[in-house]
Amino acid sequence: MGERSLERVRNGLVVSIVDALQRSATVSQPASREVWRDLLSGELGASVEPLTGDRLRPWLLAVARQCTGVGDGLACLVRSLEYVEQGSATVVELWPLVDEWEAVDFFQVDLGALRPVLQSMGSVNLSAMARRASRSRVQELPSWCRSAWQVFLRLAGENTPPDELAPSLAFLSLCAEWLVEDGRAEAAEQLRRFNRDQAGRLEAEALLTAWQHAEFLQPEPSVVPAYLLIQFEPDRVEADRYYLSHWRQSDSEGWHPVRGETVHLRRDELPAAVEALIEETEERWADLRQPVFLEFVLPWELLNEPVEWWSRESDSSLPTPLVLDYPVVVRSLERLQRGAWHRPWSAKWRQLSERPADSRSHWSRPGQEGPYFFHLERELKEDGQAVCLVLSEPPGDDSGAGRREVLAGLRAGVPAMLWHRGDCSDAAFRDALGDILEERSLGSLEDRVRKWRNKALAAGPDAWDGHVGRHLAILLDDPDRKPTPPGPV
After folding, report:
1. Which class for 322: exposed (0-12), middle (13-18), buried (19 or more C-beta within 10 A)?
2. CA distance to 50, 81, 151, 463, 477, per residue, from 485 (Å)
3. Can you tell me whether residue 392 is helix, strand or coil?
4. Beta bridge partners of 232
5. From CA 164, how far away is CA 394, in angstroms rounded?
6. Of 151, 162, 358, 432, which is the most buried if we count CB atoms within 10 A?
7. Cα–Cα dist 235/237, whole Å
8. Are 182 and 274 part of one and the same domain?
9. Residue 484 belongs to a domain
10. Is 308 in the same domain as 443?
11. Cβ distance 9 to 110 under 8 Å?
12. What DSSP character marks residue 305?
């Protein structure tokens, strides 16, 4: 295809991007548009001129054109809008257009002829095909990848080692196989012809041939866990309501969490919503071979909530607690959102993760009110090896010792905290801590806590409330596992 036709394809994508932006509530309102423009300038590393006058569309065309001149400029455009709108319909509409722009840039041809063929593919397991085409580097697809066409565009932007076939071409090969089995040989040949042409252009004919004749070997199960991060953020206007957000992370090669939908719920609706979310995630991860961890990012007022004992399959006659199936830890929403606390947090996490044998716990033993909590924070900050804080009380209301101890620990960067959700002076709790913390190394804290939770489970539903493992809480905060994109707080 000639250069003029390729330019027409790109112009069409820019127009589609502008069309979508004009439907955005953020872009249509001057105040929110300025917030977006400022965020976009920061993402691009270059100033985006403000709108002057009332001609919105020409200004949006200019902004989009400016973004196309930067390496990942269009992704910056959508990402900055996502900071403001999260998973809005506009954002969901824009991401596939960004993928298509990057695919056209990679293949240097009009891809439009492939669209109807790939969109016509019915019920296929797109995630499994993407994992196979990417040799398991792509573990989960973004929410906007709902058709084989969108998956193909997404994979076209994936980095490829020099000795491997591009995942997008491998995916088309798998689609061609599916079409043959579906009795559509002509459509399959169209995909194969495109693959042959592109393999020739990329000097990858041998790789394509090897792929087509190779037997796909299932990789060994990864020892890197998959994570489901579940975050509750209080509504600052309506009391007793929360924004529930979540991220799924199953990429064993790096931390690339996929953000899910954010919902606005009453406090009493959270357990059922989490149950439904876990059910949906399990369906997505049906063929995942990694262990799965749950991490709850909680605000002050929910930090003592026994989330690991919330139910699965609560509509059955035999519901089970989450802790039966998953390792569960809690994390601090306030620390995640408070950038000024992150430097000491990272330093103490490095101490715990890299030198666990040289790390130690600190037991809080307040003797009186007043300066004790100041001195607790001072001691934790001065002792670089103090990475685990044992609370003297569960974190409760603002004036309680437990809340103040948590605050001191967060300010000092302590990544791990342990407490009894009911009574931290309980003798059985102290005995359990002796077992959890007695070893010379503080590595595998979560494993040791889980051992005690398993003892409670072994006691059975009629007796586990009387076992200390039922009441053990662990906050374990890894600064390298932040939800992304972070956006402004």
Report:
1. buried
2. 24, 11, 21, 43, 18
3. coil
4. 244
5. 53
6. 151
7. 5
8. no
9. no
10. yes
11. yes
12. -
Tens digits of per-residue pLDDT, 342-398? Answer: 999 999 999 999 998 889 999 998 875 568 889 999 999 999 999 999 999 999 877
Of the candidates 329, 293, 325, 323, the one whose C-alpha atom is nearest the C-alpha of residue 453 is 323
Convert the pLDDT of each residue in 424-456 to its tens digit.
999 999 999 988 987 666 778 999 999 999 999
Tokens (6 digits) for 385: 């090896």
Contact 350, 358 (CB under 8 A): no
Structural domain contains residue 314: yes
Helix (H) or strand (E) holding 389: strand 386-390
Of 246, 226, 228, whose CA–CA distance to 289 is shortest? Answer: 226
Length of the chain: 489
Domain end call among 75, 110, 145: 110
Looking at the structure of the chain, the number of domains it has is 3
Q: Is residue 247 classed as helix, strand or coil in its secondary structure?
A: strand
* Co-location of 328 and 214 in the same domain: no
What is the C-alpha to C-alpha distance for residues 290 and 274, in angstroms, rounded to an integer? Answer: 21
Preceding omega of 479 cis (within 30 degrees of 0): no
pLDDT tens digits for range 179-215: 988 889 999 999 999 999 988 888 888 888 887 766 5
CA angle 298, 300, 301 (to 5 degrees): 95
Q: Which domain holds residue 20?
A: 1-110
Mark 417-439 as b/e (b = at least 16 C-beta within 10 Å). bbbbbeebeeeebeebbeebbee
d(CA 303, CA 298): 6
Which DSSP category does 464 fall into?
G
pTM above 0.85, yes or no: no
Q: Is the peptide bond before 485 cis (omega within 30 degrees of 0)?
A: yes
User: Which of 283, 305, 135, 159 is closest to 220 using CA atoms?
Assistant: 135
- Given a contact cutoff of 8 angstroms between Cβ atoms, the answer to whether 111 and 168 are in contact is no
